[in-house]
Prior knowledge:
Elements: H1 2-16, H2 18-22, E1 29-34, E2 41-45, E3 55-61, E4 68-69, E5 78-80, E6 93-102, E7 105-106, E8 110-116, H3 117-120, E9 127-133, E10 136-142, H4 151-154, E11 159-166, E12 174-179, E13 183-186, E14 194-202, E15 215-218, H5 226-249, H6 251-258, H7 266-269, H8 275-282, H9 309-323
Antiparallel strand pairs: 1-2, 2-5, 3-4, 3-6, 6-7, 6-8, 9-10, 10-13, 11-12, 11-14, 14-15
Amino acid sequence: xxxxxxxxxxxxxxxxxxxxxxxxxxxxxxxxxxxxxxxxxxxxxxxxxxxxxxxxxxxxxxxxxxxxxxxxxxxxxxxxxxxxxxxxxxxxxxxxxxxxxxxxxxxxxxxxxxxxxxxxxxxxxxxxxxxxxxxxxxxxxxxxxxxxxxxxxxxxxxxxxxxxxxxxxxxxxxxxxxxxxxxxxxxxxxxxxxxxxxxxxxxxxxxxxxxxxxxxxxxxxxxxxxxxxxxxxxxxxxxxxxxxxxxxxxxxxxxxxxxxxxxxxxxxxxxxxxxxxxxxxxxxxxxxxxxxxxxxxxxxxxxxxxxxxxxxxxxxxxxxxxxx
Length: 324
């Protein structure tokens, strides 16, 4: 009985307890190096049955260079080498590795796969914008942003593949390939119809590129002829320019017309040495004709300046009035 128990203990210790007995940690699992939009990220899973509180340290190297330290003593399960301002080339081949540590115990290095950046990086989905104009839809494409370098510096001859379909009719989608321009007009579309568009970048070396999300836009009524808008714009600008020129050239006349001023007589504005001023100064006042008027009061007092017979005349009239 005791022999059976001892054998069981030894077997259990051999299969499950080697890490605890020896004091050596098991290494991380599922270690992989990936790249999307020219980044370089190492990912892993914790060791099987790992205790809490593990920390990880990473490195990377190329076939022609020594290993360089990446993330140190981190608890996360990934390390982005391109975010550490390291000298990573867009045409390089890289391999990553990671160890786990708990206190003074440390696991062995666990290496990842090798990645050639410019050949194996996954190109992300482009940004797509649609503009509707009558029975046409313009597709505007913007390349993804790379972590290192620029998209066209690495993939100069990349093309676009555009797939479009009527909303709800995915099975009847049409595809246009080998497009170099980032602005494309889809023609011969039905009016008042919603179309959905999806764009994918294609390169010779990269095959696993992500397509864009489907973007939908509705066509409208038939567009007006371009010359109509141009003619309206030209007429409007011509009228504006004509009004401005007239206002500048005839500004004084327009000002007098809108705000008229009363003209003063010529003799008031004539200068002292003018003929008008001299004629006015040497002229004589015109002869005045008038009749003398005398006022006789009721007390028959003759006003000063009236002839004496004025009083008698008044009294005789008064007598005549009394007799009558």
